[in-house]
Amino acid sequence: MNAIPAHLDHLVLATPDLAATVADFTERTGVEPAPGGAHVGLGTRNHLVSLGCSRYLEIVGPDPEQMRPDGPRPFAVDDLASARTVTWAISPPDLDSAVAAARARGYDPGDIRPMSRRRPDGTLLRWRLTDGDTQHPSGLVPFLIDWGSSVHPTATDLPTTPLLELTASAPDPDEIRPLLSALDTELTLIQGPLSITFTVDTPLGPVTFA
Question: From first to last of its 210 residues, what are the pLDDT tens digits of the chain?
Fold first, then answer.
């Protein structure tokens, strides 16, 4: 199996139908993702699965209990025809320093902005992440996240499907590799259609998602 990227925090599996994708994951793996909570005002909510070693999978889609937001929902979930792994996140030791270093190396990961999510138990989680038009549109270059004083999602009692492999393909991998280096991380890349694929270990054996 390939190396897991340095500082990997989580993978994002976006879907236009959250309930259906959670049911599909449960059927294929024998593991039911846990409700994560709502992104208030953004029109999305998520379910989570630990990938082991302080890493997790976020399954995110439209929240039927929220009004449709004025702007597009995160991860372009309204434009998806089916569930797809759209991007990933890393958590560097120092978010601000990592952003400054990346910019000095020629890649701007975007401005840092605050985010929040309310867990089903009412706890409000707050974090900071990079977001903006300067981020690479492929999703293959991760965004950066800092959980600050909030409890990391994997510190709760999440169901677990250990991550075995993470790979990606791109029409021009050599365009992506320097941007990953600017963020002090890596990703196994091959030439091909734009995609991110991961394999997890489950009670039903290894299962691959794209």
Answer: 567 998 999 999 999 999 999 999 999 999 999 999 989 888 999 999 999 999 999 999 999 999 888 888 989 999 999 999 999 999 999 999 999 999 999 999 999 999 888 888 888 889 999 987 788 999 999 999 999 998 899 988 899 999 999 999 999 999 999 999 999 999 999 999 999 999 999 999 999 999
Distance CA 45, CA 38 (A): 4
pTM greater than the 0.90 cutoff = yes
Structure tokens at 123: 């706890």
Q: How many CA atoms lie within 13 A of 51 on its CB side?
A: 21
Element (H, E) at 165: strand 163-170
The C-alpha atoms of residue 21 and residue 38 are separated, in whole angstroms, by 16
State how far the alpha carbon of 190 is from the alpha carbons of 3, 4, 10, 173, 198, in Å.
14, 15, 21, 6, 14
Tell me the helix, strand and coil percentages in the chain, rounded to 5. 20, 40, 45
